Amino acid sequence: MTADSFGDVTGEYEVLHQSAGVIGGQHALVRVVGPDTESFLDSLLSQDLVGLADGAVVRSLLLGPRGKLRALLWVARFGDEFMIVTDRESAPSVIEDLTRFKLRVDLTIGEAEPTLDLVGPGSSGVLEAAGLVVGPAVLPGSLGRLERFFVAGTDVDQLVEAGSRRVGRLAYTAARVEMGEPVMGQDVDESTIPQEAGVVPDAVSFSKGCYLGQELVARIDSRGHVNRHLRGLVLTENSLPPSGASVMAGPKSVGSITSVSESLLVGAPVGLGLIRREVEPGTEVEIHWEGGAATAMVRALPLI
């Protein structure tokens, strides 16, 4: 588990926005390789992977048969090898699900490999100084408007020596909340519909063929709505409620806060939560937990 900080949360936060920070323990990489990999993954994942160009990275989802989230993914291709990056805690279930459907196909599913997140506008320069290039072990991504790379097979010291700085969980969470990126098992879970999490525009293709869990996603897109939305919460006082604290609109519970941190750019504590759809951005709510309470404003994501 990543340390909360390495002695200077403010400095760690600033490097994420101004230079380059490196954090471990957030994601894992699963390699799937073989001549049938493209068709196999395309039949399971929500993004169109047929003809994906070498080196391309796309967002995607692994869903259950009823269309609820199983994992949030990034998928990259290099020849017959596909790299899947997911939240570290989701990696075992991703491997389990892929293995369950691996019938009469020629491919190999690898073990989960730990990855480092290299985040910030100076990330490309750090990779160059470290002698690393985009490829099967270095995948470009983003954290909202921040540059990000997922780096496997490299230790933190190599990236620090190349000009990055170690970042702890508190600073990383602040940036993640600001950008509205949910974590599976914390902000969303296997009861979450993709449209509730706000990930469909980037992660779902509505023009591809069938895939696991497609029916619910397509039905909601064409003629439905969801009852909750992932929202930002900006506290109006300097208080940090615990994850799981109730979000109240008047006497009614309308959700809970799932991630919380302090944002220097917003100038206030911030959080994420799945909030009832009738509570629109701009609504003032109260957050209640054992021994405390605070007011907050519901905001659309991203927060900055």
Structural class computed from helices and strand pairing: alpha+beta
Percent of residues in helical segments?
10-25%
Largest sheet, in brief, is: 9 strands, mixed
- Give the terminus-to-terminus CA distance: 28 Å
CATH architecture of the largest domain: 2-Layer Sandwich
Order of helices and strands: HEHEEEHEEHEEHEHHHHEEEEEE
Number of helices: 9
CATH superfamily annotation of the largest domain: Probable tRNA modification gtpase trme, domain 1
CATH class of the largest domain: Alpha Beta
Poorly predicted sequence stretches spanning 5 or more consecutive residues? none
| Domain unit count | 2
Q: What is the CA-based Rg, rounded?
A: 20 Å
DSSP strand content: 35-45%
The number of strands is 15
Mean pLDDT: 97
CATH topology of the largest domain: Gyrase A, domain 2
Approximate shape: globular
Report a brief summary of the structure:
With 304 residues, this protein is of the alpha+beta class. The protein has two domains: 9-179, 2-Layer Sandwich (Gyrase A, domain 2); 228-299, Elongation Factor Tu (Ef-tu), domain 3 (Beta Barrel).
